Amino acid sequence: MSLDGDLSDPDRRILLHDLRLTLAPEWLPDVLVALSREPLSYTGLLGVLRSYEVARGRRWAQPVLRDSVLHRTLRWMQDRGLVERDRGQQWPFTSVYWLTPAAMELVRLVLPMAQWAAAHEDLLELDRRIWAERRRRRKNGTKARRSRSR
């Protein structure tokens, strides 16, 4: 199957829907970017992901990556052929993770999306405010109202 136009619109939608499900874990893009430079041990990867600083004075909270969440994300990616792992043979057992060729190809597609996000931070900020308002209303027991576009 070629991507040059041989796909019908329904086929494209189905494939994009399936891709969205494959990319579902929240930390998957972070793991892709972190492992795109070099293979890392589990502890090294966790350290890299926890060391990200909030750049350019953004006003939202830094997400916290829990050990169990990274474990589930890596297992998810491994089960879907995006990450490979080699477990050491001696105590203490260490695992080293690296991206498969398909995942490296995906990284090359994800990086332009990060550039788009940097160019349109105003849209991301708007989305964060909308979600924050929804959470605030839910916490206070009020329903969120839709804004009407005219």
Automatic annotation (TrEMBL):
Pfam family of the protein (one): HxlR
Domain HTH hxlR-type: 9-125
PROSITE patterns: HTH_HXLR
Transmembrane segments: none
InterPro entries hit by this protein: HTH_HxlR (IPR002577), WH-like_DNA-bd_sf (IPR036388), WH_DNA-bd_sf (IPR036390)
Gene3D superfamilies xrefs: Winged helix-like DNA-binding domain superfamily/Winged helix DNA-binding domain
Designated name of the protein: Transcriptional regulator
